[in-house]
Amino acid sequence: MQCNSPLTSAETFCYSCNSPVVAKNPREFSDRFRTTIKVVFLLFALITVASLFIDSLPSFWKCFAGLGVLYLVKNSADNMSEFRKK
Which residues, in sequence order, are bridge partners of residue 20? Predict the structure, then answer.
């Protein structure tokens, strides 16, 4: 839009300059959730490997179990997101 005049959400063209209104395409919650889960999964994978060498972290088996749970959550979020897009 060129003139910056106020518009309602239902208007598709500007009434003063007749330019088309560009529709915003915000990221959906599912996309943000998937990104967050992927980041947490990767961080947890690093903590799992580090738990073999650093004693102040939880034990390897606890980290490995948590990594398995996060893997299931990540796959479930990916599948639900793909199902919604179809």
Answer: 13
Assess if residue 18 is contained within a domain.
no
Asked if residue 41 is part of any domain, the answer here is yes
CA–CA distance, 20 with 11 (Å, rounded to integer): 9
Q: DSSP letter string over 13-71? A: B-TTT-PBPPPP-PPPHHHHHHHHHHHHHHHHHHHHHHTTT-TTSPPHHHHHHHHHHHH
* Digitized pLDDT (tens) for each residue of the chain, 86 residues in all: 567 777 777 777 777 787 777 777 667 788 888 999 999 999 999 999 999 999 999 999 999 999 999 999 999 988 888 776 66
**Position 5 in a domain:** no
User: pTM here?
Assistant: 0.65
Residues paired with residue 13 on neighbouring β-strands, in sequence order:
20
Number of domains in the chain: 1
